[in-house]
Amino acid sequence: MSLPAAFSLLVSLALALPVTVAGQGVGTTRTVIIDIGVPEPYSFNEARISARNGISGLARLYGTNLDGERVLLFETRAGWTDELVATWYCSPDLVSLAFDGFDGDGLAVGSTVHMRATRPDAAMLSRLGFPFRQTPFGEPRPSIAAAELVSASEALPESVARVALAELFMPGRHAAPLVLLAGWAVVVIASAPWLAAGGRRKWVVVVGCAVVAVAGFAYFLGTGPAELYSAGVPATSPEAGTPGPVWPMNVADHGTWRAVSWGEAEGLYFVAVRSPLAAAVPVSAFSGYSMIRFAKVPLVVVAPDGRAALAPSRLAMAWALDD
Q: Which residues, including other chains, have CB under 8 Å from residue 195's CB and lie 6 or more apart?
């Protein structure tokens, strides 16, 4: 092969390969462009995704971390659009983003963009641990003294997180539905001989009652507003023998979700989100924090009102720094 011909072949191959930029820029294939700008770690970011024939149908944005684990960051089902804006949470261990979706003609499209995001000022946030996840029943405390958040055996932030989960971040529900469902299961098991000797009519009655019980339990778990909890971490522990400041519970109702908080800290907060199946906390609710570190990378979806929101989950925990 002549030298000009070889050079032309190399140029053709180079143009056909995806282009990726570390840290900022655009990753492309022949039909998909992913523009991530300059991603901010410990924050929610936006990726702008476009294709020659538009984007339509199921669209997903994945992230791959340093361990090679692939995590779903964003998911939606879109009508036709020339540009899809995907909101995603940037964990500092992510090294690439990948889009999987369909264009306006229904053909599968995808692309990957590599990235490297660092934030040296987040060293303190990255060292904080998370308590064991709990699902307590009952009502949250209407107020709490700062001294009650302090433990002699734990560092101050971790102590605040443990007490907050056990006594403050509670959905105001009670164990009665669970007890009734468990009782129903015991009755069915005890009635097994009677059912075995009976006919089809008995089974129809039992199955009908079971459907009602399960539906009631699902309603118990899936209704109510989503809740964004926060508890401030005192800058210093109260003096021994003194309660310190007393923090009342503050509630701000936003319709499908509400913010419930205790105390105003000098920067650091322990945060948790409870999202039933019927409601979600919008990503904009976290705009007051300069950095937020989730225990598990959250999935962002598009809510019925068109806003980016956290996908429903039983409990999502995070440490956050305010502005």
A: 202, 203, 206
- Strands 300-302 and 257-262 turn out to be unpaired
Tokens of 80: 């036709």
Tokens of 51: 């294709």
How far is it, in rounded angstroms, from Cα 290 to Cα 44?
10
pLDDT in tens, 50-71: 999 999 999 999 999 999 999 9
Residue 104: CB atoms within 10 A of its CB come to: 16
Q: Is the dihedral of CA 79, 84, 90, 95 positive or negative?
A: positive
Per residue in 26-50, pLDDT (tens digit) is: 444 447 899 999 999 999 999 999 9
DSSP state, 242?
-
Which H/E stretch holds residue 248? strand 246-253
Q: Which residues contact 117 (CB under 8 A, 6 or more apart)?
A: 23, 39, 40, 41, 90, 92, 94
Tell me the residue type at 265: A
32 and 111 Cβ atoms separated by less than 8 Å? yes
Listed by start position, the domains of the chain span 3-118, 122-173+223-322
Counting DSSP H helices and E strands in the chain, the numbers are 6, 15
Average pLDDT estimate for 108-129: 86
CATH fold label, 3-118: Immunoglobulin-like (2.60.40)
d(CA 309, CA 306): 9
- pLDDT at residue 20, rounded to an integer: 34
Tell how far CA 96 is from the center of its chain. 19
**Distance between CA atoms of residues 315 and 317, nearest Å:** 7
Tell me which H or E stretch contains 310.
strand 308-310
Count of CA atoms in the C-beta half-sphere (13 A) of 138: 9
* 132-146, 216-230, 248-262: which is most confident: 248-262
Residue 220 has pLDDT above 50, yes or no: no
User: How many CA within 13 A on the CB side of residue 164?
Assistant: 30
Backbone angles phi, psi at 187, to 5 degrees: -60, -45
